[in-house]
């Protein structure tokens, strides 16, 4: 508003200036025409005509000078207008001469009659224009001030209305705590910026609620799984301490306790691996390993402790270049992932047999594990990546339900993909896909 007001005022100043000098120039040329062209008219008659002219300026002064700068006509009886030689020379050169002398606005123009050059100097005051500009200045100041006040009040009201949804959102968010993650923010129409922000925040709350629920179940299951072997160890030791026993009884009891301790150590290691891999997230590994060598190493280690397992490895003949089998990753973590898949395949199969195929699939290196085990039901398929979750048909087999979630997290951290297809009493096919390094 301030800029617009200043622009209006200075535009009006320019308009008044141009209008005044244009009218003054027309009056000067008409006077010169009457005096110089119409020979019958003398100065007295010209003055009489000009006085009767309705277009008359305040304190109007007209001066006409010949080629020798001698005054041949003048209405400036008191010689108020100063005629400087440099100004007259500028007029004769054809330059536009406009200047202010005291309260007078002076115009100099050149008038030609045949070969004679006459200088016409016209001067006048413009009190109406000054009054007009003064009034315009006052009006603009008042309008600008009132507009700014109005804009402030209106902007305050409308900004309050515009920010009310955000204020409501802040109040609602302050009500949400760890025990009330089920609360949601009002989304409105869900299409404007506030609605989309509320929708995004609600989606985040849903993910947080799911994460906390999974964490709660994880802690409960972990506590249960840890408590079982600890309770067993405690019970066996208490029974053992109740009376004196033979060496054989002590050995048998300690062997059972040792098995429980091993189970406890294995469970703790798996829990630590899940925590580690979940915290790291996807990374770019600098170390490069050959996936075929890892398969043979895992097979050798698993057969050493499980002589009844049958692990058959086949490598696609198209994989003739070792570079095709290079994967960027952590060798120990990859061994853990592959050994878990093989262990599940053999453990849940009556023949304890698994077929492992190493293939080149869609510009990726793929490891396919096939078994003829108990399979996974469609209902359980959606929850197999939840820690400690076990299918109904797997409860009769020894296990903790940590293997697949751990495998899934390790594969994700290696920028790979895990695919599982299964059918009850038919078998399961697990595919691990890795980008080739």
How many helices in DSSP terms? Answer: 10
- What is the number of independent domains? 3
Spans with pLDDT under 50 lasting ≥5 residues?
Answer: none
Structural class: alpha+beta
Main β-sheet, in a few words? 5 strands, antiparallel
How far the N terminus sits from the C terminus, by CA atoms, comes to 64 Å
Beta percentage is 15-25%
Number of strands: 12
Q: Any idea of the CATH topology of the largest domain?
A: Heat Shock Protein 90
User: How would you state the average pLDDT, rounded?
Assistant: 84
Order of helices and strands: HHEEHEEEHHHEHEEHEEHHEE
Strand order of the largest sheet: 2-1-5-4-3
Q: Can you tell me the CATH class of the largest domain?
A: Alpha Beta
CATH superfamily of the largest domain: Histidine kinase-like ATPase, C-terminal domain
State the helical fraction: 40-55%
Dominant shape: rod-shaped
Mind telling me which CATH architecture of the largest domain this is? 2-Layer Sandwich
Radius of gyration: 51 Å
């Amino acid at each position: 508003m301030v800029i617009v007001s200043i622009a209006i005022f200075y535009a009006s100043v320019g308009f008044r200036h141009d209008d005044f000098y244009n009218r003054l120039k027309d009056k000067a040329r008409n006077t010169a025409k009457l005096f110089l062209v119409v020979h019958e008219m003398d100065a007295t008659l010209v003055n009489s005509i000009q006085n009767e002219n309705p277009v008359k300026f305040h304190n109007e002064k007209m001066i006409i000078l010949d080629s020798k700068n001698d005054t041949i006509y003048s209405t400036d009886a008191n010689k108020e207008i100063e005629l400087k030689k440099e100004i007259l020379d500028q007029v004769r050169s054809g330059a536009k001469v406009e200047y202010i002398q005291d309260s007078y606005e002076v115009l100099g123009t050149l008038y030609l009659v045949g070969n004679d050059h006459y200088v016409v100097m016209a001067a006048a005051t413009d009190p109406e224009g000054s009054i007009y500009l003064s009034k315009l200045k006052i009006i603009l100041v008042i309008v600008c001030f009132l507009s700014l006040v109005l804009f402030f009040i209106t902007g305050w009201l409308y900004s309050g209305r515009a920010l009310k949804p955000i204020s409501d959102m802040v109040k609602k968010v302050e009500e949400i705590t760890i025990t009330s993650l089920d609360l949601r923010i009002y989304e409105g129409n869900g299409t404007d910026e506030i609605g989309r922000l509320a929708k995004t925040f609600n989606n985040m709350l849903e993910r947080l609620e799911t994460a906390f629920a999974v964490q709660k179940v994880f802690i409960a299951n972990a506590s249960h799984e840890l408590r079982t072997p600890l309770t067993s160890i405690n019970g066996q030791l208490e029974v053992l301490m109740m009376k004196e026993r033979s060496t054989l009884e002590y050995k048998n009891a300690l062997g059972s306790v040792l098995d429980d301790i091993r189970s406890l150590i294995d469970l703790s290691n798996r829990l630590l691996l899940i925590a580690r891999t979940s915290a790291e997230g996807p990374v770019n590994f600098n170390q490069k390993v050959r996936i075929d060598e890892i398969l043979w190493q895992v097979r050798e280690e698993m057969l050493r402790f499980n002589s009844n397992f049958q692990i058959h490895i086949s490598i696609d003949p198209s994989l003739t270049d070792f570079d095709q089998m290079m994967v960027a990753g952590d060798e120990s973590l990859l061994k853990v992932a592959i050994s878990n898949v093989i262990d599940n395949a053999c453990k849940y199969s009556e023949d304890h047999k698994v077929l492992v195929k190493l293939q080149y699939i869609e510009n990726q290196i793929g490891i396919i594990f096939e078994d003829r085990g108990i399979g996974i039901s469609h209902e359980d398929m959606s929850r197999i990546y939840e820690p400690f979750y076990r299918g109904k048909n797997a409860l009769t087999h020894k296990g903790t339900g940590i293997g697949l979630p751990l495998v899934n997290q390790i594969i994700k951290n290696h920028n790979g993909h895990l695919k599982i297809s299964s059918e009850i009493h038919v078998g399961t096919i697990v595919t691990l896909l890795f980008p080739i390094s």
